[in-house]
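Hi V.,

Quick status before I head out on leave. The structure for the redesign project is tokenized and pasted below; the design run finished overnight.
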């Protein structure tokens, strides 16, 4: 099962124009609220992300330690580098995906990779955390597409001004 778990501004952006995500936090009403992430990450076997997301994590968000030591992570890139323990660089969807069919997979980002996975029909669930922020512009989670998707609401959760929406795709 592949789950897109991602934060988005109220107006649909996952990052500002420079790729920054410093705005991703709540409204301060419940700063001690745990939210859904801790439960979510405990259930994940594998993480998939694009190279820009990987670079942002390793250079800005967590430069001193890899934040996902318990999950194997695949980084999709046009320029694969040698793999490291529990970390693989790849550009081949079709070889990787059959090996993940019995795993719970987090599609972490970024926008280009998310768009490709959606268009290929690989995403099973959407878990979107709506951040109480209007950015006005930035990197859109859902760029224009010729495809449309019917969704079924699986659940909601609200904490610190953030609203989590969980959807499955209706066939």
């Amino acid at each position: 099962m592949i789950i897109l778990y991602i934060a988005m501004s109220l107006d649909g952006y996952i990052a500002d124009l420079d790729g920054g995500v410093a705005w991703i936090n709540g409204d301060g009403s419940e700063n001690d609220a745990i939210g859904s992430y801790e439960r979510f990450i405990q259930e994940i076997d594998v993480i998939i992300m694009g190279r820009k997301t990987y670079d942002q994590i390793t250079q800005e968000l967590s430069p001193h330690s890899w934040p996902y030591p318990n999950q194997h992570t695949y980084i999709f890139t046009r320029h694969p580098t040698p793999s490291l323990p529990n970390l693989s660089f790849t550009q081949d969807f079709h070889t990787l995906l059959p090996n993940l069919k019995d795993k719970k997979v987090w599609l972490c980002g970024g926008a280009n990779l998310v768009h490709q996975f959606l268009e290929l029909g690989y995403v099973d669930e959407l878990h979107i955390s709506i951040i109480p922020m209007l950015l006005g512009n930035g990197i859109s989670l859902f760029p224009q597409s010729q495809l449309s998707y019917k969704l079924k609401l699986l659940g909601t959760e609200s904490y610190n001004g953030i609203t989590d929406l969980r959807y499955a795709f209706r066939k």
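Above is the designed sequence. The CA atoms of residues 95 and 101 lie 12 Å apart.

G. will cover questions while I'm gone.

Best,
W.
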